[in-house]
Specification:
This protein is an alpha+beta fold. The chain has two helices and four strands, in the order H-H-E-E-E-E. The chain is elongated, with a radius of gyration of 18 Å. The mean pLDDT is 90.
Length: 110
C-alpha cells in the first residue's frame, strides 16, 4: 500500500512540475526569436524589446514583470547583437508540500 501511494505522489508531482518546466523551455525559444528579430531591427528600443518579451510571457502565462527582463545590446565593429534574459519564480504545490521553481531563461551567450 505504501508503494502504491508513493507512486501516486510521484505522478501527481510530475503533473505539477512539468508544465512550468515546459513553459520555461518554450519561453527560452521565444527569447531567442525576439533577440534575433529585434536585434536585426535597429529602430526598436529596449522598451519595445521588453514589450515583445512581455507579450511572449503572457502567451505562456508566466508571472513576469518588465523589471525582471534584462535587455543588453552588444555592439562590436561589424557586428551587433541583442541579449535578452528574464528572471522569474513559479510557485508549485504538490499534496502536502509547496515550493518555488526559479527560472532564468535567456536568448543565449553574451
Amino acid at each position: 500500500m505504501f508503494g502504491f501511494l508513493a507512486i501516486v505522489f510521484v505522478v501527481v508531482a510530475c503533473f505539477e512540475v512539468a508544465p512550468p518546466m515546459m513553459a520555461n523551455y518554450s519561453f527560452q525559444d521565444d527569447l531567442r526569436n525576439v533577440a534575433l528579430m529585434d536585434g536585426a531591427n535597429f529602430q526598436k528600443t529596449d522598451d519595445d524589446v521588453r514589450n515583445d518579451v512581455m507579450r511572449k510571457a503572457k502567451d505562456q502565462n508566466l508571472p513576469i514583470t518588465p523589471k525582471q527582463i534584462i535587455v543588453q545590446r552588444i555592439n562590436t565593429p561589424g557586428m551587433s547583437a541583442l541579449y535578452v534574459a528574464a528572471d522569474y519564480t513559479v510557485p508549485v504545490s504538490v499534496p502536502g508540500y509547496s515550493f518555488d521553481m526559479h527560472f532564468t531563461p535567456s536568448s543565449g551567450n553574451k
